[in-house]
Input
Amino acid sequence: MMAARFAVGLLILQGAWAATCPDDPESDLCDTTEVSGAVRSQSLSTSALLLAGVLGCGGRISAGGLLLLPLAFNAFTAEAATPAPAPTCGGLKAVYKDAACCGSPTKSFPFQVVPKPDKKLFKNNYCSGKKPVDGHVSGDKYFNNVKCTLENGVLNAVEQAGANVTKGYVGGLNAAGRTPILTDYLAAGLCPVNVHWHLGTEHLSMGEFDENGKGPTKAVVHDDHGDADSRRLATEARMGYRCHHYNANDAKFTTPYKWQHCVEMKVGETYEVHWPHSGAGACGTPYQYQTPFYDGVFCRDGIITLTPLNTYMKIAVQSQIFTIVNDENYYYPDLFRGMIVDGDFGKDIAKYTGSTTGTSRNNEVCSQYAPITWQVDRKCHLISASSFDKMCADMKQQADDMSDDLHAHGSRELVSNKLAANNLQRRVQGLK
Output
């Protein structure tokens, strides 16, 4: 029945466009004009999306090619579990027609065209392979995961993440006077070096994202390499906590979205986004953003030191939690570069020292990439699926290959009280 409705609707739309937007030299993109670049939009109508790739193009797209068309599919089909095929000339033509550009060559076009060349200016990624294994001396493998406690119960690791960030929570590990970065990271001399996200949340904020959260029927999400410190193959990403926003009777939480750039994502689901920052990043250069993020964090030598210990002043992570909706009223154009700070977004921030996360760690096996600063938004926010897809498209444009971060990673289990720092601080945006 759904397939029949889809086919009938497609025929009607094709017929309507044939009558109102003929393929004459003025309106047909392929007859006389070469178009270089990619269409990027926060919202496309269903009609254009249904015809994307169906209406053929007799000419050719020049070297730029199509990159980001389309970002906001609202098709009737199920969500893709694998990356969609590359956009087509027909897709560009469909969007052009749907924007009612035919016969109106001077009309403002509500999309962006950006290039996607096969060649890039810079090819010497000097951050590649900078993730350290040794710490104090060569061969000591200082940064390898360790047992959290010795057999006699004595702690064998410093503070861990993700922790309970509920207002008033106090961890049981004495952080020995270490104070997390309390300013914004830019003011502290750090820049973002990566973005990635986790299925569900690794942190807990009571009433916002916790064990009572809800979401759609859980789909299997593959995190084939576990995380940067794991070599397990074909693993299923571990689900963390969820937000409370999901409503199965509200279409924006249930209407499928056809992902073009992010992989194995789901409308209605909760994701915790991390933006690792570093004072040793290749800030302001083509190699600022790296996958794995450790390469970006440790890119420049001589800045991060263990003696004296300055990791929690030079390495930090922003964390913000979202429930994805298929509703363009929740579109944000630049999720790639960092936490949203506006209105309730980024207003109530928990700040503490912890560690890197990921499913190769738990309450028995701890990370040695610690202590580092965390700033976690305590609230869960709604965000459009197209915002995430735009972020993934931006990731694909970086000099380094960030494809391993286009899907959700598994969530580490909540850190136990004895491994959580006792220095959790709350700072509301705009208040002292």
